[in-house]
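Session log. Operator J.P. requested a structure for one protein chain; no other inputs attached. Running the standard single-chain path with token output.
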Amino acid sequence: MHGTIVVKDAILAAHPWVARSLFKAFSQAKDEWLNRLNAGAANTASDQKYAQLRKIVGHDPLPYGMAANQKTIEALSSTAFRQKLTPRKMPLADLFVDPEDI
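Structure written below.
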């Protein structure tokens, strides 16, 4: 998992469309970047790092969404609990809103 986007619960309660809109916007930007990477038009050092990583992880080195990152999120939740950073092993639904379900 590369990163997360944080939105206050109050914002999501008042404007539930925000999560889906952010997810769609970031997904579209990533898809455009992947297209440039496929075409050899993305040439920064970071682009080249991810191009090399694709040889190991497949076409999408930065998968988005809960389903694609479920194992990583579960591992983070378990580790946080074992290290006493959280009072219990947190279920995914308590940690994240899945924008694809909204």
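Operator note: The chain has five helices and no strands.
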